[in-house]
């Protein structure tokens, strides 16, 4: 369907690809993965419309290919107010209107008077193309197909709901569904999982797996990667690795290759050490006597050593370094006072801070208090919300899309609602959800500019890089309270892991909104569940069980946790050069992944 041969492309300030080649065959569900900023979205756009770019190499597309695309940004037209069913019907109705328009033009006096027949021939070609599209979409049965898709996604009840009344996550799924219904030969999805709650993520997985056509999906979501793809395209360091199989199989193959390379590396180091020793011996002999034979032997051994050093294997897809993520260094809350700094100091360091002073906090005093909070727009969103955070607690707010979580976070940051009180002696900082459902791109850019005034060109960053930039700004603050809205959104898997580790080590207080199960399960002391227009406290262990029972397959999550533990043990064994242990653990991982 698409064949890429020796593709090279980049910008003046950054090379993206150097002689990469791969194929996307018809019917495959391919995941495009890689570190933040490596050029995944650009590559996907090049495949959709190669003519927009000047590049070296070839992008060969089937002539009959029709491409669909769903962006990672789900920005709604606020002036539209149709039902969900009407929204999904638009592509089919437009096709019908286009066919009717061509038929009407065929009967026009101008076309009938054309003795050359060229106008009619062109219209007949257009008519046939529209009929081909109609057939591909199964337009005659579009109403039943829409209902089938809604049923697959568990969204049947939304058919007659106004578009303005659904959540951002639901709208994002509908955008993808709308593209799928038009049956493109190739459907490209750019981070379709970002900001989706657990239920909508499960619906997305079902939609992807039920799709009959070819898919190219950019994602960092571990659940989707483990469930939805039979081909992996891994972009890293200007190169691309093509792998036919599931992500789990790819990960096992990576570790096996790393084991082989590590064994080879150890052998090479032994050979290099022996050769270096021989070179030293020969040099010593040559310095004590004039002998051309010894001199030639020194040169030969040195050449052999140079070749050994030059051919040491570099494997960009094996050793991928996590980004360095540091959070503010603050004293442990339980040890007593925590130092606070002034707001101007924090602002100078790039943090978003309010209300800090030179006073000192007491560990037992609540950092944040919310009492009888309520908010409503067209309908009641939240009411009777009450909770406190004491120093050192890490708390996650979890709930379905559209239940008011981000609104609550914004009101806490504003700190001007009488039902919200942040200790005036506490410095706090935030990470914003920069790509929200209700924000226009101009507003997003303006918000980022307000947050950071250090000359960084965020327009040239990917969404993941922008989020990493926000996180790194926190390190220079002294914030004792972090307020985080979807902090791992758009982050690649390696950055997610690094952020989880940094958050677990952070000694301050955390309030975060997240749909990232792994982040919540690994880092939160307890969870505030948003449901029935209010919040209730839930222990993290109980939350995990609820997720098992309600949203995901318990066996999968338990197996995935075991996989992570095995991979941690593999990493430790590699550090000790215990390759026998690595081999044994890799076998365990492969057996676990095949079940």
What are the salient characteristics of this protein?
single chain; 595 residues; alpha/beta; Rossmann fold; six-stranded mixed sheet; globular
Question: How is this structure best described in words?
Answer:
The chain is an alpha/beta fold and 595 residues long. Among the domains are: 82-161; 256-310; 333-552, P-loop containing nucleotide triphosphate hydrolases (Rossmann fold, 3-Layer(aba) Sandwich), CATH 3.40.50; 554-595. The chain has helices spanning 40-48, 84-106, 109-112, 118-136, 142-152, 168-181, 198-210, 222-227, 247-288, 292-310, 343-348, 405-414, 441-451, 463-474, 493-505, 517-523, 540-550, 554-575, 579-594; strands spanning 2-11, 14-24, 29-34, 56-61, 67-70, 186-190, 214-218, 231-236, 239-244, 368-376, 380-389, 394-399, 420-422, 428-431, 481-485, 509-513, 526-531, 534-539. A hairpin with a 2-residue loop joins strand 17 (526-531) and strand 18.
What's the short story on this structure?
This protein has 595 residues and is α/β, with parallel strands linked by helices.
What share of the residues lie within helices? Answer: 40-55%
**Apparent shape:** globular
**Major β-sheet annotation:** 6 strands, mixed
Q: Which residues form runs of ≥5 with pLDDT under 50?
A: 334-363, 435-454
Mean pLDDT, to the nearest integer, reads 82
CATH homologous superfamily of the domain at 333-552, by name?
Answer: P-loop containing nucleotide triphosphate hydrolases
**N- to C-terminal distance:** 32 Å
Assign the CATH topology of the domain at 333-552.
Rossmann fold
* Rg, Å, rounded: 29 Å
> In CATH terms, what is the architecture of the domain at 333-552?
3-Layer(aba) Sandwich
Instruction: Just give the CATH class of the domain at 333-552.
Output: Alpha Beta
Q: Which strand-content bin applies to the residues?
A: 15-25%
Number of helices: 19
Strand order of the largest sheet: 5-6-7-3-8-9
Q: What structural class is derived from the secondary structure elements?
A: alpha/beta
